[in-house]
Design the sequence.
C-alpha cells in the first residue's frame, strides 16, 4: 500500500466517519466501477493535458448523476486535480481497511480443502471472534492441495491447521531423527 493511498484514505475517512463512512466507501467503489466500465472516461480524467475546468465539469455531472455525497465528490475532484486517479483502487482498499479498524472489525482469510457449509463458516467466525476480541469479516477460499483442514490468516498472523502442514512437520521429524 502506498503512503499516498493511506493519506488520502485517512483524510476522507476522517471527514465521513462515523455517519457517512459506509456510504462513502460504496460511492468510491461505484466510481471505480464506472471508470473500469468506461475506459475512455478514465483516460479523459487522467489526462493532465485536458483543461481542468472541463474535467471538473464532467466530474460534477457524474457526481450528480450518481448521487454522490458532496465530500466524496470533492475528494474525487482532488484526486483528479492531483493526477492521483491511478491509485484510486489502493485508496478504496485502504479506506475499507481503516473503516474496519475503526469499527472494531478484523478481516480474516480462511482457506479450506473443500467448501464449507454455512454452519461451519459461522463456527469459524465465532472462534475467530473469541481469539481476536473483534467482529470478524471472513473471506473464504478453497484449495484442494491442503488435503484437509484449514489455514486462516488474520492480519499478519497465520493459523495453519492443514493436513499438508501436519504431514510436512511429520516428515521433518522423521528425517531429523
Sequence:
Amino acid at each position: 500500500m502506498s503512503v499516498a493511498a493511506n493519506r488520502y484514505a485517512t483524510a476522507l475517512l476522517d471527514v465521513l466517519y462515523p455517519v457517512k463512512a459506509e456510504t462513502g466507501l460504496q460511492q468510491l467503489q461505484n466510481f471505480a466501477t464506472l471508470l473500469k466500465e468506461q475506459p475512455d472516461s478514465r483516460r479523459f480524467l487522467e489526462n493532465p493535458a485536458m483543461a481542468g475546468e472541463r474535467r471538473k465539469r464532467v466530474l460534477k455531472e457524474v457526481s450528480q448523476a450518481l448521487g454522490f455525497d458532496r465530500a466524496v465528490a470533492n475528494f474525487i475532484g482532488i484526486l483528479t486535480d492531483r493526477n492521483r486517479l491511478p491509485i484510486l483502487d489502493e485508496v478504496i482498499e485502504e479506506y475499507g481497511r481503516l473503516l474496519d479498524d475503526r469499527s472494531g472489525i478484523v478481516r480474516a482469510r480462511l482457506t479450506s480443502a473443500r467448501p464449507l457449509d454455512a454452519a461451519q463458516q459461522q463456527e469459524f467466525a465465532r472462534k475467530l471472534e473469541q481469539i481476536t476480541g473483534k467482529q470478524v469479516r471472513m473471506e473464504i477460499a478453497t484449495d484442494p492441495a491442503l488435503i484437509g483442514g484449514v489455514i486462516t490468516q488474520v492480519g499478519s498472523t497465520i493459523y495453519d491447521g492443514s493436513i499438508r502442514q501436519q504431514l510436512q512437520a511429520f516428515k521433518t521429524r522423521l528425517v531429523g531423527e
In short: The first strand starts at residue 105 and ends at 112. The chain has a mean pLDDT of 93. Residues 7 and 91 are 9 Å apart (CA to CA).
